[in-house]
Amino acid sequence: VDGDSLVFRARRAWGHLRTDAGPVALLFGAGLIPDLWINALEQHFHQRGAAPLLTERGQFFNHSDLGALALLNTWDDRLELALWVTNGEGRSEREQNTGKDLSLRLSVTPLRLPVHGAPLDVRAHGLYRQGSQGVGKARNDRVAAALTVGHTHYGLGAALYLADGYDGRSEQKARGLDLWADARLYPDWLGAMAHLTQLTVDPDDTAATTTRLSTGLFADLARPVPGLGRLRLYALYERDTVDAAAAPFPGIPEAANAQRVVLKLEASGAARFDF
Q1: Domain that residue 237 falls in
Q2: What is the pTM of this model?
Q3: How many domains does the chain fold into?
Q4: Which of 74, 82, 106, 128 suits 242 as a labelling partner, its CA being 20 to 30 A distant?
Q5: Is residue 220 part of a domain?
Q6: Helices (H), strands (E): how many in the chain?
């Protein structure tokens, strides 16, 4: 740390302590911690290599931030309560926020079924965050809810985000929506996916929405190793549609409408060391 800014560019750098007390597991951590809302959704979102969720890409939440967290897990991994306090500026901004972000998330798995030899989990999530941004502590609150379905071969999800204070402006409100689905067509390597996002910067204006549809196929070029990443190729069709009030040139939404055919290669990995 140099003065009031973070000079390193690590995505995450944190330490944690876990302890078990009967059916309850507790985890405490501090450092450049992950956002536990994004973490919860990505457990059932298998398309990050194609594009992140709007919850991150739309600036509703930072992927990681400097802070501390506490997480409680019980009921055979069916109930999880998470609390975290962060600076509120993310990992790549100058630390100018004179306030802090306080976030609380509850995740419940009311349904777990064996399907094709693996558990299928239906999970509901809710979040409230009281936050601020910048030297003037501009309001930056969030309310979010999501329903996700996770399985080794399938992934489904719907998530809604409401922002009271957005893009550094206390008076600005915004709404975001993520809908996604993916499935392995040929379990070893071939699959299909679809992802729809909608960002409305002024929820009171019915013509202030930007919509993106992404759909296509993916192929795992190497057999995935659980917890150690993958090598995956995406072939996608993307379509962006911008309403009149959301266009960069007011009244000319056609200037921002776009269609693309995209090839993406995702290579990810991880290393774990136990002491």
Answers
A1: 13-267
A2: 0.91
A3: 1
A4: 128
A5: yes
A6: 2, 15
